[in-house]
Specification:
- The complex is a heterodimer of chains A (209) and B (385).
- With 209 residues, chain A is of the alpha+beta class.
- Helices cover 34% and strands 25% of the residues of chain A.
- Chain A has a single domain (6-207), classed as Thiolase/Chalcone synthase (Peroxisomal Thiolase, Chain A, domain 1).
- Chain A has helices at residues 34-44, 57-70, 75-78, 95-103, 115-118, 125-134, 150-162, 201-207; strands spanning 6-14, 17-20, 23-27, 84-90, 140-144, 168-177, 180-189, 197-198.
- In chain A, strands 1, 2, 3, 4, 5, 6, 7 and 8 form an eight-stranded mixed β-sheet that branches.
- In chain A, β2 (17-20) and β3 form a beta hairpin.
- The longest helix of chain A is centred in the first third of the chain and has 14 residues, at 57-70.
- With 385 residues, chain B is of the alpha/beta class.
- Chain B folds into two domains: 5-227, 3-Layer(aba) Sandwich (Peroxisomal Thiolase, Chain A, domain 1); 233-384, Peroxisomal Thiolase, Chain A, domain 1, CATH 3.40.47.
- Chain B is built from ten helices and 16 strands.
- The longest helix of chain B is centred in the first third of the chain and has 16 residues, at 72-87.
- Chain B is globular and about 55 Å long.
- The chains are: A alpha+beta (209), B alpha/beta (385).
- Chains A and B meet through α4, α6, β5 and α7 of A and α4, β5, α5, α6 and β9 of B.
- β5 (140-144) of chain A pairs antiparallel with β5 (145-147) of chain B, so a sheet runs across the interface.
Chain lengths: 209, 385
């Protein structure tokens, strides 16, 4: 069970920067708000996916991070869709849109709950959005931690690959709450890929600083 | 050779009772926990739902003689876990070899709608803090693992518990799933026009939506064969999948659920013909139940007796997978198939075999399935020891 797996690529979107495989690809010079920054990344890369505008901010962040991760790292062409897993975690679940939904039901005189908001009040919807975009059908799980848990994530994802439950995995951390955002997604494969970083707790902690 | 993983204790807290035994007795007699509820600030209009009596929670919790303040959901987690630990005295909650996994979709979301978070710190809204509160209460040294994956959370939490036990880091894992009924959740499903005005009717021709509910359920899993008894139930397999189709509607073909079922049977090394019954998801929405009939037929399980317990417990979200699995486990132990309350006439296009009335029959293998928002599906297989 000690086979080596690799982080073959990663994308981090946080603090006004887009970092793909250690290159800062795009940075915000105008100190835009978090939501505006994510939209400007979407536009900068000319991603064409109208559903993006229906998503809540958490899913928009996850979606853009996954698009840049997979742009030049087409794991969906390398592996069968049933053999790609998605394992993501965060700290604040869907509290950003939860708060929006709560506002629509707190006042009896101004009561307007909407299915368009309510459907996003579950953190794993962001996994669904990535799965739909890339037609990925394998194992999927959303965990909640106080902060990114490199050890659990490395151990759990490695066990999925080593036990044959997945051939490849999109893993990471996507959190959005009260203007703070942090998207970090990476691909794990049994072969080194672009980056060839061993998928261990130490390497993951180095990458996610 | 992988170690075998089995369940040695279980508890259900629902409107039908505060132990698995109490709940199972009501299921056997086909008595539902759903009724018309008004005046509990869930909804402007009366709504059909399965609600746990507040006074009962308070009186049960008072028996534990606990001084600290806990939220409604935390009280349910504590009561449910405490009952399972009583059944398995060899399992030490304060051991580093014991892990707690919690499954919940919305956690303490009721605090969001109450003034000043009901006196609790704001971080109490996060599920990881709920985990901290529960591990602290039981003196468990490990950080709780939190699974929040819509309506498959409970099944998935048990699958993950099994996988972690197979790796041997832990000896025992307490898996507890809970969600409470709130204005937040009721208003959301009502905005989807997904809530039935009556007790829901799974798989029935006249089904018209879900009934919501609240519950908490706990199982203790172990890889320690010394704790095994003839009554222990084996978990032989489990898998999750995604439809990759739509975030709030199930796939029309059921291929995602079918994939999870086939991976589960493969791991369990069982053929479809060896499955004695299926505990379905059966939310009683037109699309979900139809999808299940497609998926089961594709997996050659259309003739296997099947029920849904949503018309007893309501849809209990993060608790559903666990409490419905426990009911399935008690069905195996008692060789008793539970009839599907409110099911009269099949209303899905594939001829699946829905159990109408409770009956006794020799049972060895139970397949539990679940599906949820985000296109997720899961299946798990339980067997007699």
């Amino acid at each position: 069970m000690s086979a080596t797996n690799y982080i073959s690529a990663f994308c981090r979107i946080s603090s006004g920067k887009v970092n793909v495989n250690h290159s800062i690809m795009f940075a915000d010079e105008n100190e835009e708000s978090s939501a505006a920054f994510i939209k400007s990344v979407y536009k900068h890369y000319q991603i064409n996916y109208p559903k993006f505008y229906k998503m809540d901010k958490l899913c928009q962040l996850a979606f853009v991070t996954s698009e840049l991760l997979l742009k030049d790292n087409k794991i969906t062409e390398k592996y069968s869709k049933e053999d790609i897993a998605i394992v993501v975690s965060n700290s604040n679940s869907s509290l950003e849109i939860d708060t929006e939904h709560q506002k629509t039901i707190s006042d009896k005189e101004n009561y307007f709950p909407s299915p368009a908001n309510f459907v996003y009040t579950l953190p794993n919807i962001l996994i669904g959005e990535i799965a739909i975009r890339n037609l990925i059908k394998g194992e999927n799980t959303f965990f909640i931690f106080d902060k990114f848990d490199a050890q659990f994530t490395a151990d759990y994802v490695n066990s999925l690959l080593n036990s044959g439950k997945a051939e490849s995995c999109i893993a990471g951390w996507v959190d959005y709450y009260e203007g703070s955002y942090d998207g970090f997604l990476y691909t794990v494969e049994k072969t080194p890929g672009v980056l060839g970083i061993e998928h261990t707790t130490e390497q993951l902690n180095n990458l996610y600083k | 050779m992988k170690s075998e993983i089995f369940i040695i204790a279980d508890n259900i807290i629902s409107p039908l009772g505060f132990t698995s035994e109490e709940n199972f007795q009501h299921l056997k007699k086909m008595e539902t926990g759903i009724k018309s509820v008004s005046g509990r600030s869930l909804s402007a209009e009366p709504v059909c739902a399965a609600v746990i009596n507040d006074d009962k929670i308070t009186s049960e919790f008072d028996k534990l003689n606990i001084k600290d303040q806990y939220t409604r959901l935390e009280k349910l987690f504590i009561l449910s876990i405490a009952d399972t630990l009583k059944q398995a005295p060899a399992v030490k909650a304060n051991s580093s070899k014991t892990l707690i996994i919690l499954s919940s979709t919305k956690g303490n979301i009721d605090l969001l709608g109450s003034a000043n978070n009901n006196g609790f710190d704001k971080k109490r809204l996060t599920l990881w803090e709920t985990g901290n509160v529960i591990t602290k209460h039981f003196g468990n040294p490990n950080k709780a693992l939190i699974v929040s994956n819509a309506c498959i959370s409970g099944v998935l939490a048990m699958i993950i518990g099994k996988r972690l036990l197979e790796q041997g880091v832990y000896e025992n894992i307490i898996v507890s799933g809970g969600d409470i009924l709130t204005h937040f959740v009721v208003s959301g499903f009502q905005s989807f026009k997904a809530v039935s005005n009556e007790v829901c009717k799974p798989y029935d021709a006249s089904r018209d939506g879900i009934s919501l509910g609240e519950a908490c359920g706990t199982v203790i899993l172990t890889n320690n064969s010394a704790l095994r008894s003839p009554d222990s139930i084996l978990i032989k397999g489990g898998a999750s999948s995604n439809d990759a189709n739509h975030i709030s509607g199930p796939s029309r073909t059921g291929d995602g659920l079918s994939l999870a079922i086939e991976k589960t049977l493969h791991e369990a090394n069982l053929k479809p013909s060896e499955i004695d019954f299926i505990s379905g998801h059966g939310t009683a929405t037109p699309y979900n139940d139809e999808m299940e009939s497609q998926a089961l037929t594709a997996s050659e399980l259309q003739n296997v007796p099947m029920n849904s317990l949503k018309s007893y417990f309501g849809h209990t979200l993060g608790a559903a997978g666990i409490i419905e699995s426990i009911a399935g486990i008690h069905s195996i132990k008692n060789n008793t198939l539970i009839g599907t309350y409110n099911f009269k006439e099949l209303g899905v296009t594939k001829p699946i075999n829905i159990i109408k009335e409770t009956k006794t029959q020799k049972l060895n293998n139970c397949l539990k399935t679940a599906a949820g928002f985000g296109g997720c599906n899961a299946a798990i297989l339980f067997s007699k020891n």
